[in-house]
Write a structure and sequence with these properties.
18% strand; six-stranded parallel β-sheet; 37% helix
Length: 209
C-alpha cells in the first residue's frame, strides 16, 4: 500500500512554487480577540507573533506591503450572518471593541495596511486582491491565526487570485495541534509552500542585496 506522501506525489501534488521579487506580507487576525487569552476565542500566540514581527520588519525594509487583517462585525450583523450561527463565539468581535484591535506584539504599525473582514478569507468581500495587484505583488507570505480557519481560507483564495503563496508555519497558530498540522499539510500539498520564518527571512534578505 502506498504511503501518504507517495499517494500525493503520484497525483502531482506538492510541487514547489516560484518565489518572486515583489513579495507582500499578510498577517491574518492577530487581533486581541485571538491573542489575549482573557477572551474565550483566543489562544497564546506569543512566539508566532514575535516571529511575524521580524518578517514584517524585513518586508518593510524592502519597501513592500505589510497588511494586517481583523474580523469586525456591526451589532446588526451578529444576529443574522450565517457564519455566526456556526461559530457563535465570534460574535464578540464587534467594531470598536478591543477584541478587533491588532495586537502590537505582532509588529503592527499604523503605516501598515489594515483590512477589516466579515469572513474567514482575507480576500472575501475586501479590496485585498486589488491592493496587492496595484503594488505589483507576485508572492504573498501568510502568517496569523487560526491556521485551520482564516489562514487556510486566505491561502486558498490567494493562489486562486494568482499569487504565489508562502506560509510561515511557525508564524501561524490554532487552538489545537491537530487542525493546525492538518491544515499546514493540506496547504503545502495544494495551495502554497509551507516553510518557516528563518527560510523566509533569508528569502527577503536576498532580495535586499
Amino acid at each position: 500500500m502506498a504511503s501518504q506522501a507517495q499517494t500525493y506525489a503520484e497525483a502531482g501534488f506538492g510541487q514547489r512554487v516560484p518565489r518572486g521579487t515583489r513579495p507582500a506580507l499578510l498577517v491574518v487576525d492577530f487581533s486581541y480577540g485571538f491573542t489575549d487569552t482573557a477572551y474565550p476565542t483566543a489562544a497564546d500566540y506569543g512566539p508566532q507573533m514575535a516571529r511575524t514581527a521580524k518578517l514584517a520588519e524585513a518586508t518593510r525594509a524592502l519597501g513592500r506591503p505589510v497588511i494586517y487583517t481583523t474580523i469586525a462585525f456591526d451589532p446588526a450583523e451578529t444576529g443574522s450572518l450565517a457564519w455566526l450561527r456556526k461559530s457563535g463565539g465570534m460574535a464578540a468581535l464587534t467594531r470598536g471593541s478591543r477584541l478587533v484591535e491588532i495586537d502590537p506584539s505582532s509588529g503592527y504599525r499604523p503605516s501598515d495596511g489594515l483590512i477589516e473582514k466579515k469572513g474567514a478569507s482575507a480576500f472575501f468581500g475586501t479590496n485585498l486582491a486589488g491592493l496587492l495587484a496595484s503594488t505589483q505583488t507576485d508572492t504573498l507570505i501568510v502568517t496569523g491565526a487560526t491556521t485551520s480557519g482564516c489562514v487556510r481560507a486566505s491561502a486558498v483564495d490567494a493562489v486562486q487570485a494568482g499569487f504565489n503563496v508562502l506560509v510561515a508555519g511557525d508564524c501561524c497558530g490554532d487552538r489545537a495541534a491537530a487542525p493546525h498540522d492538518a491544515s499546514l499539510y493540506d496547504i503545502d500539498q495544494k495551495y502554497g509552500d509551507v516553510t518557516d520564518s528563518d527560510d523566509l527571512a533569508r528569502y527577503l534578505g536576498g532580495l535586499a542585496e
